[in-house]
Every structure is written in C-alpha cells, then in structure tokens.
Amino acid sequence: MGSSSGDQQIDLSAGTFATAPEDGLIYYEARGGLGFADFRELWAYRDLFFSLALRDLQVQYRQTFIGVAWAVIRPLTLMIVFTALFRMLGRIPASNEQTYAVTLYAVLLPWQLFATTLTKSTSSLVANEAILTKVYFPRLILPLVPIAVGLVDFAIAFVVLLGLMFWYGVMPTVTILLVPFFVALAVLVSFAFGTWLSAANALYRDIQHAVPFVVQVGMFVSPVIYEMAEVPEKWRTLYSLNPMVGVLEGFRWSLLGQQEPPLTAIALSIMISAVVLAGGLVYFRRIERFVADRV
Q1: What is the signed CA dihedral for 278, 263, 143, 285, rounded to 10 degrees?
Q2: With 80 as the cut, is the pLDDT of residue 150 above it?
Q3: Residue 2 pLDDT grade (very low, low, confident, very high; cuts 50, 70, 90)
Q4: Rounded distance between C-alpha atoms, residue 274 and residue 118, angstroms
Q5: How far apart are CA 266 and CA 248, in angstroms?
Q6: What's the pTM?
Q7: In this model, does residue 220 exceed pLDDT 80?
Q8: Of 210, 208, 230, 229, nearest in space to 218 by CA
Q9: Are 111 and 105 a contacting pair, CB within 8 Å?
C-alpha cells in the first residue's frame, strides 16, 4: 500500500496501522490496546453488517411453520399467563387493573428486545468463529448484528400492541412520540453490556451460560410484570440503578401516559449505560487484538 511521506492510513485488510516515514518504507504496528471504536471503519463495513443481519434473520426463521409470528407469540403468551395468574390471585400489580394486559405486553416488548439481543451479542464472537479467524473486519460489528435482528422482531410485535390498545380502548397521548427514544435507550443498554460480555465470553465460555440465567432473573427484578409504584418509595432510587428500570418505566409512560414520567430512573439509565458503554468499548478494543486466537 503506497503512501506519501509522513502519512498514516488504515489497512482494512490487516487491521493494523501503516505508517510511511520519510525513508519511504512502510511499517506496520499492532492496533493500540486502548481507545474507542473506529466508527469510520465501522461505516466502511456497513454492507457486511447488513449482510450478517439478513443472514441471522433468515436463519432465525428458517424451516419454521409460523415464521415471524414467533416474535408475537412469545410476549403474547407471557401476557396471557401473567394476567390470568394475577387475576386468580385476586391482585393486579398495576395502577389500572382494566388495562393490565396492555401494560404488561407493552413492557414485554422492550424487555424482549434487551434480553434476546444481549444473549445473542454475548455469544456473537464465538458463534462467528468461522469468519472471525479467516478475514479481517471490525469485530464490533458482530455484537451489533443481533440488535438489528431484534429491532425487526420488535417492530412486528409492536403492530400487535397497537391492536391491543385499540381493543382495550387505550388512547395514546402526545407522549407516544417519545417511544423511539426509549427503544433507542433499550438498544443502548443492551449494546453497552453486550460489548463487555461478548469480549469476556471470547476468553471465558462460562459467560454465555450465565447470561441467560441472569436475564431470566432480571425480568423479576425489573418492572416488567409489576410497576415501579409497587416498590417501596425508600428503595426506588437504589432500584433505579438497574438501567432497564428507566427504559421500561419510560416506555410504559410514553405509550400509555398513565403516570408521571420517571425522570430519575431515566436519567440514571442514560448515565449508567453511557459509562458502561465507554468502558465496554475500551475493553472490547483491547481484546479485539487477539480475539481470533482465543475463539
């Protein structure tokens, strides 16, 4: 690769920095271990990202009888089960018992988006070992791909949510315009933790076995089947350190507008996710140098 004197450019095929000093020779050195992602490089490989996302979407529903309907069946089944259970117990953990089914289904969508993308992002490097060890590309693409697939499932299930709102007579307010913000925040939380976990899983396979269990437990320590109002007020700030609290309560509020906006929980969710993502990008960049040798 040619270069003018003193120039520095990126050799995308090798994933290294190439420097051409004044003697005209080209020297290669390993990518630095600290720093954030090279977003210009990620953009240059956007075609690969879309190709991998389309591949994963096709594989997810290949040889299935009902196809993309699975994106709806999962949250709909949970909605029916929990609604029936709490009605039998005689107590609905929500401020409006008549619309509990809609409230529950509404927050199951961002939770499912977070849970599935985080689980798949965690194993993304190991699952793509075949291409990871053969050709160079920005490794950060791999934990991003499950997010694209998860958003497709979310969009399909969201259409059913609009139908449920119409059926139960729940009229959205102007706050529904903030729904994309809380979807983006769910993606941010998932990607923030996914960068850490995908890199760590390349070194320690225990991670991919632990994450589904933690996510399952996380559903019950997050306001999914109940509202944050059910948590004693003295514990709510501590409870809100779970970044999904702000996502779920914010999504519920923006869609249904039944209570005051959970500003503290939303602010904590944004700050915690930003800090975790910054650390995750640095850690991922450090592991990226030798990840192909470890998977």
Answers
A1: 0
A2: yes
A3: very low
A4: 16
A5: 9
A6: 0.84
A7: yes
A8: 210
A9: no
Q: Which residues pair with 27 in a beta bridge?
A: 19
Q: What is the DSSP letter of 29?
A: E
Let me know: does 150 contact 236? Beta carbons within 8 Å.
Answer: no
Cβ–Cβ under 8 Å, residues 272 and 241? yes
Minimal CA–CA distance to 154: which of 96, 188, 119, 108? 108
Distance, CA of 149 to CA of 145 (rounded, Å): 7
The pLDDT-based confidence of 7 (bands split at 50, 70, 90) is very low
Cα Dmax for the chain = 82
Q: Beta-carbon neighbour count of residue 4 at 10 Å?
A: 8
Q: Are 195 and 277 in contact (CB under 8 A)?
A: yes
Q: Grade residue 275 by pLDDT with cuts at 50, 70 and 90.
A: very high
At 183, list the tokens: 């979807």
First to last CA, the chain: 30
| Predicted pLDDT at 267 | 96
Angle between the 243-256 and 179-203 helix axes, to the nearest 10 degrees? Answer: 160
Q: For residues 75 and 224, give the distance between their C-alpha atoms in angstroms, rounded to a whole number.
A: 11
Q: What is the pLDDT of residue 137?
A: 85
Amino acid at 194: G
Alpha-carbon distance of 88 to 83, in angstroms, equals: 9
On the CB side of 122, CA atoms within 13 Å amount to 21
Burial of 151 (0-12, 13-18, 19+ CB in 10 A): middle
The answer to whether residues 137 and 38 touch, using CB atoms and an 8 Å cutoff, is no
The beta strands (E) that lie in the chain are given as 8-11, 16-19, 27-29
Q: Could you give the 3-state DSSP secondary structure of residue 274?
A: helix
Beta strands at 16-19 and 8-11: parallel, antiparallel or unpaired:
antiparallel
Six-digit token pair at 267? 């602010």
